[in-house]
């Protein structure tokens, strides 16, 4: 039955190609079947913020510019990327101007204008709307339209890196006509608009079944009349990563499956079936172990992990922090838990290449137990009868927390074993991801509270510019009861020299200098042991060999170029 | 009987109110958060705004009362409006909205019901149809080969979890033999013979997994209950009177044995509606079970609250039905 369908689709495609020798006609390649094992809940990324929603909606609604697979900016709805050189960005870095491509239409046939762009900004910043992408519009003072084809964004202060609002899959433009009555508190009530936004992208939502399946058809008003090659898309959700991989790699029921978080050896077996392949792309995700700079002793009660608790009795010793890093064999962790989806790293900013430092690779990338042991011996940490080092009654024994996830638990075991070889003990603990990352101020298990000595998780930054990310390690961003445990400086690292350098970065516009500063900041964090970077994590997806045109992208939506996808001949 | 039923129904109202409060309180105490699954690139102050827009900044009791109003007043009125076309007020009532999808919870449930009823319901029916004859024969020919095999299979079916049998069937029948799809297509509409075959094919594996599990459970009950009755005096009397063995077994013994079995079956019906969380996940049936588990993982409190409360209503209701059925089946039992 399925073969017959394929055969028919193939015949139709062949006929269509025979008819038009010079141009490919859109909609000739049948149905594209995509599998997201985490089902998509809504098509409005402003109301969800989850990666799955951002990716799914990227087939329908588009930003003004997006990132390509190398992290470079490409114009989508505009004629060019504004820069200081071409006059698009003002010399004082206080404003930028986008020129909209002529003739762009919404999928309902109405023209796409600067008004829609302004509306999108107003929609997201409206009070009570709970816009999940509000950070994309941070520092934007106003968005204006000198004429229907021009968008002028004014900033509250000079922005050396202005590409955030309307750039990337997180901040697509939505249609004013459709969402006009859905601003602020009224946003969640507009179910049909949130499930079927009108967009400029290659596909249009035909039917949306929340947390289940989305049916999309080709947009007849798409600006490139030869695209998309597929007539429709079925995006199915649910299940787990391993069975999603099986549906693409073994049974061949699906063309594309997102996010293959599966043990490397299981994936390798599935790929051997010869029906599909894995695609990997490395963005900015780094799995790291944060070292608590404050005392996290449970006997301190509510004071632990705050300034009042005082510095950590052993982790405040730079020798200990460095030894903990030296003892870890990152290659083994990658091999056991990540396979092709990971690379050993000593950087917290691992990419793009321009800002990725190599300064600390020489001492940090290789495991060196001898050096680590010597470091601890010299610092006066002596092994006790139980094999755990101690000094003045303080033991090198740590509570090691992370979120519940089979790869993380396996990594915990490995690290515990490596640390035991330098006389450091670890008690392992894990909490469900929705609790660990949930940020509930009443819960003792959140990563922000950090009621542990060390904790492990992954974080990254959007886009290619690390300025905002590096500012997370500022002294005033330390989470504490005073700020409701909100603050992104989770390791409680504080160094005035670092703060000063971040200030310098925010005032520097030249790209080379920015890159040099970013590297310097990154190196400072690694050298001073704010954390131990472990693995540079890539995104892995799988696609059928019958699918062509996939360009795996870690900088934007994985489906960023779905208009170019086609059935492999 | 009627006054008894009425009394029980009235008694159910405070019970359900207490249940709804307990569920709400438990969910509120649970330490997860609707913004927990969001990427860490979304800063804390934005998360705070998201929580506020979901109404999480309101006090607990206020949120509970609000849910009561939405569930017991707004939703029924809405259903009534849709069924009759009448308009009550301005029709602009706040419905129970799911946090993850921002769409009405009741619509989600209605969307999920068909696949759950088809797959889980059918598996229950099959389970019963298989279980009763096997149980009867097993009991009648106790310790025969048939009984031994039946006991063995039902023990296996009962003790091997569905996440094992499900994946096993997928590996054999989808990956290796490629007879059946491993993913359930909820968009499939049965219009002609080929789409009907398609529907049968995609239902085959999940229904098989669940039928085995259900049948194993019920067979044990049927067998035990039959054995109890087979040794009763009235059976000996019937045989002594010269009643045919077939009548003894199928009329005298079976009818009496079915009384406890019917209760067990009736009490099991609500579990059909709660879906089969694991089996639905494995085959991506995406019915009510999957809806519930996603909601629990994503801390979608209105959805979890509404779903679990509906299950509570069904359980209370089917308990009552079981009791009433008991009275009808066994004339010796009278409640009044």
From TrEMBL, chain B:
It is found in: Cell membrane. It comes from Neorhizobium galegae bv. officinalis. PROSITE patterns: ABC_TM1. Keywords: Cell membrane, Membrane, Transmembrane, Transmembrane helix, Transport. SUPFAM superfamilies: MetI-like. It is a multi-pass membrane protein. Residues 113-322 form the ABC transmembrane type-1 domain. The gene is dppB. The keyword Transmembrane applies. Belongs to the binding-protein-dependent transport system permease family. It comes from the Bacteria. The lineage of its organism: Bacteria, Pseudomonadati, Pseudomonadota, Alphaproteobacteria, Hyphomicrobiales. Gene3D superfamilies: MetI-like. GO terms for cellular component: plasma membrane. One of its GO terms (biological process) is transmembrane transport. Its main location: membrane. This is Dipeptide transporter permease DppB. The chain crosses the membrane at residues 9-27, 117-140, 152-177, 258-278, 309-329.
């Amino acid at each position: 039955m399925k073969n017959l369908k394929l055969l028919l689709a193939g015949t139709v495609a062949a006929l269509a190609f025979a008819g038009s020798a010079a141009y490919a006609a859109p909609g000739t390649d049948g149905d594209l079947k995509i599998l997201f094992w985490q089902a998509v809940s809504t098509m409005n990324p402003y109301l969800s913020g989850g990666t799955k929603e951002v990716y799914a909606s990227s087939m329908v609604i588009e930003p003004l510019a997006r990132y390509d697979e190398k992290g470079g900016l490409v114009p989508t709805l505009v004629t060019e990327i504004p820069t200081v050189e071409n006059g698009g960005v003002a010399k004082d870095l206080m404003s930028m101007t986008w020129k909209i491509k002529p003739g762009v239409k919404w999928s309902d046939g109405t023209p796409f204008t600067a008004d829609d762009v302004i509306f999108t900004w107003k929609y997201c910043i409206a009070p009570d709307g709970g816009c999940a992408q509000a950070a994309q519009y941070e520092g934007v003072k106003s968005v204006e339209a000198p004429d229907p084809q021009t968008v002028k964004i004014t900033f509250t202060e000079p922005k050396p890196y202005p590409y955030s609002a309307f750039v990337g899959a997180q901040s697509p433009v939505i249609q004013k006509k459709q969402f006009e009555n859905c601003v602020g508190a009224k946003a969640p009530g507009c179910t049909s608009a949130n499930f079927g936004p009108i967009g400029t992208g290659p596909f249009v939502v035909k039917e949306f079944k929340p947390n289940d399946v989305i049916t999309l058809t080709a947009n007849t008003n798409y600006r490139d009349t030869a695209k998309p090659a597929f007539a429709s898309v079925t995006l199915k959700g649910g299940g787990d990563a391993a069975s999603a991989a099986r549906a693409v790699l073994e049974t061949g029921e699906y063309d594309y499956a997102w996010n293959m978080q599966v043990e490397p050896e299981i994936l390798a077996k599935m790929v051997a079936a010869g029906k599909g392949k894995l695609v990997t792309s490395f963005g900015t995700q780094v799995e790291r172990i944060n070292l608590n700079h404050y005392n996290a002793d449970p006997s301190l009660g509510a004071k632990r992990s705050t300034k009042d608790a005082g510095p950590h009795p052993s982790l405040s010793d730079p020798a200990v922090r460095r030894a903990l890093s030296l003892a870890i064999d990152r290659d083994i962790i990658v091999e056991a838990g990540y396979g092709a989806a990971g690379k050993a790293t000593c950087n917290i900013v691992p990419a793009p290449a321009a800002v990725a430092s190599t300064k600390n690779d020489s001492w940090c990338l290789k495991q060196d137990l001898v050096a680590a042991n010597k470091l601890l011996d010299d610092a006066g940490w002596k092994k006790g009868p139980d094999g755990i080092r101690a000094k003045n009654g303080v033991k090198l024994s740590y509570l090691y927390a992370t979120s519940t996830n089979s790869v993380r638990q396996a990594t915990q075991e490995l690290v515990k074993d490596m640390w035991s070889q330098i006389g450091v003990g670890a008690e392992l603990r894990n909490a469900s991801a929705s609790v660990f990352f949930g940020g509930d101020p009443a819960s003792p298990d959140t990563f922000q509270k950090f009621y542990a000595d060390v904790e492990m998780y992954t974080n990254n930054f959007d886009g290619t510019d690390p300025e905002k990310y590096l500012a997370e390690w500022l002294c005033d961003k330390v989470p504490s009861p005073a700020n409701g445990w909100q603050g992104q400086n989770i390791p409680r690292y504080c160094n005035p020299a670092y703060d000063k350098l971040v200030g310098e970065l925010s005032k520097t516009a030249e790209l080379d200098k920015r890159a040099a500063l970013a590297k310097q900041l990154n190196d400072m964090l690694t050298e001073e042991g704010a954390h131990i970077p472990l693995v540079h994590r890539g995104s892995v997806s799988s696609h059928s060999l019958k699918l062509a045109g996939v360009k795996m992208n870690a900088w934007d939506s994985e489906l960023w170029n779905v208009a170019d996808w086609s059935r492999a001949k | 009987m009627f006054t008894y039923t009425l009394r029980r129904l009235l008694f159910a109202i405070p019970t359900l109110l207490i249940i709804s409060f307990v569920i709400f309180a438990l969910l509120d105490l649970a330490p997860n958060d609707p913004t927990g699954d969001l990427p860490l690139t979304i800063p804390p102050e934005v998360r705070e705004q998201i929580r506020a827009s979901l109404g999480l900044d309101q006090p607990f009791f206020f949120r509970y009362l609000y849910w009561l109003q939405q569930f017991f007043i707004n939703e029924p009125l809405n259903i009534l409006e849709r069924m009759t076309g009448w308009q009550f007020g301005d029709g602009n009532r706040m419905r129970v909205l799911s946090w993850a999808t921002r769409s009405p919870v009741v619509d989600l449930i209605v969307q999920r019901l068909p696949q759950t009823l088809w797959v889980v319901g059918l598996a229950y029916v099959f389970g019963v149809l298989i279980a009763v004859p096997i149980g009867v024969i097993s009991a009648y020919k106790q310790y025969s080969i048939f009984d031994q095999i039946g006991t063995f299979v039902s023990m296996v079916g009962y003790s091997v979890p569905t996440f094992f049998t499900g994946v096993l069937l997928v590996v054999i029948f989808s990956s290796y033999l490629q007879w059946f799809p491993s993913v359930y297509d909820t968009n499939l509409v049965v219009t002609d013979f080929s789409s009907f075959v398609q529907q049968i094919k995609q239902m085959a594996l999940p229904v098989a997994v669940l039928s085995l599990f259900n049948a194993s459970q019920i067979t044990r009950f049927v067998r035990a209950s039959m054995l109890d009755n087979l040794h009763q005096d009235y059976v000996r009397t019937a045989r002594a009177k010269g009643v045919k063995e077939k009548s003894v077994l199928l009329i005298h013994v079976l009818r009496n044995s079915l009384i406890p079995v019917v209760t067990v079956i009736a009490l099991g019906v609500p579990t059909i509606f709660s879906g089969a969380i694991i089996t639905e996940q494995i085959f991506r049936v995406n019915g009510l079970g999957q809806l519930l588990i996603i909601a629990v993982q994503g801390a979608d409190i209105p959805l979890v609250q509404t779903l679990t409360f509906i299950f509570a209503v069904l359980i209370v209701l089917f308990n009552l039905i079981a009791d009433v059925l008991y009275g009808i089946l066994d004339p010796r039992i009278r409640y009044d």
